[in-house]
Amino acid sequence: MASSAVALEDVPSVDMMTELLRRFKCSSKPDKRLVLIGPPGSGKGTQSPVIKDEYCLCHLATGDMLRSAVAAKTPLGIKAKEAMDKGELVSDDLVVGIIDQAMKKPSCEKGFILDGFPRTVVQAEKLDEMLEKQGTKIDKVLNFAIDDSILEERITGRWIHPASGRSYHTKFAPPKVHGFDDVTGEPLIQRKDDTAQVLKSRLEAFHKQTEPVIDYYAKKGVLAQLHAEKPPKEVTVEVQKVLSS
């Protein structure tokens, strides 16, 4: 305990007050346990910080959680590293265990947003079992529904200036000079993942694995369909309607 007391003493007063005010504001918010489902480029990454701040939830991205559990050498992290080192997939039980641990953090007190999990029906069932043991359940599953052809236009049109991270889009936010950064004039690049071919295989995997998960949650009556092809602000309004009902 002593070490955390020292850490608190070192926290600037402004940060401490900000955090206290945040917790006070959050105390009146309803608890929410959410799952976000959607193909790459559907806008989950844009909406999740908005939802997280509005409802005081913690954002649980399974990839990040696995990496931090491995780095922290937690018992589950050690097991996960063994699987990764052998080139094996980390088992569903391990991932659910890591989610279980992450949910106990103070930042997850009001609930969580799960992103990138569950990808299969088996994972959804294991997640439900774990939550049931804690006396909770998934409140809402937001399905970022969008046509594959719109995604292709969104994703294959993305170009990046690698040094600054500035991003452009051939249709929605083109650079002043095609192929070159507005500020430095340096050439833009396309991410390896942003090609039509890579997108096609990722979408095939998504549809095959995750469509049954959407059906699973629909049968439970917790699925909400979003029109993810709309502009981000309109999607945010849809999300708020769904979560306030």
TrEMBL record:
<keyword id="KW-0418">Kinase</keyword>
<dbReference type="InterPro" id="IPR007862">
    <property type="entry name" value="Adenylate_kinase_lid-dom"/>
</dbReference>
<comment type="function">
    <text>Catalyzes the reversible transfer of the terminal phosphate group between ATP and AMP. Plays an important role in cellular energy homeostasis and in adenine nucleotide metabolism.</text>
</comment>
<protein>
    <recommendedName>
        <fullName>adenylate kinase</fullName>
        <ecNumber>2.7.4.3</ecNumber>
    </recommendedName>
</protein>
<keyword id="KW-0808">Transferase</keyword>
<dbReference type="InterPro" id="IPR000850">
    <property type="entry name" value="Adenylat/UMP-CMP_kin"/>
</dbReference>
<keyword id="KW-0547">Nucleotide-binding</keyword>
<dbReference type="GO" id="GO:0005737">
    <property type="term" value="C:cytoplasm"/>
</dbReference>
<dbReference type="GO" id="GO:0005524">
    <property type="term" value="F:ATP binding"/>
</dbReference>
<dbReference type="Pfam" id="PF00406">
    <property type="entry name" value="ADK"/>
</dbReference>
<feature type="domain" description="Adenylate kinase active site lid">
    <location>
        <begin position="158"/>
        <end position="193"/>
    </location>
</feature>
<dbReference type="InterPro" id="IPR027417">
    <property type="entry name" value="P-loop_NTPase"/>
</dbReference>
<dbReference type="InterPro" id="IPR033690">
    <property type="entry name" value="Adenylat_kinase_CS"/>
</dbReference>
<comment type="similarity">
    <text>Belongs to the adenylate kinase family.</text>
</comment>
<dbReference type="GO" id="GO:0004017">
    <property type="term" value="F:AMP kinase activity"/>
</dbReference>
<dbReference type="InterPro" id="IPR006259">
    <property type="entry name" value="Adenyl_kin_sub"/>
</dbReference>
<dbReference type="Pfam" id="PF05191">
    <property type="entry name" value="ADK_lid"/>
</dbReference>
<dbReference type="GO" id="GO:0005739">
    <property type="term" value="C:mitochondrion"/>
</dbReference>
<comment type="subunit">
    <text>Monomer.</text>
</comment>
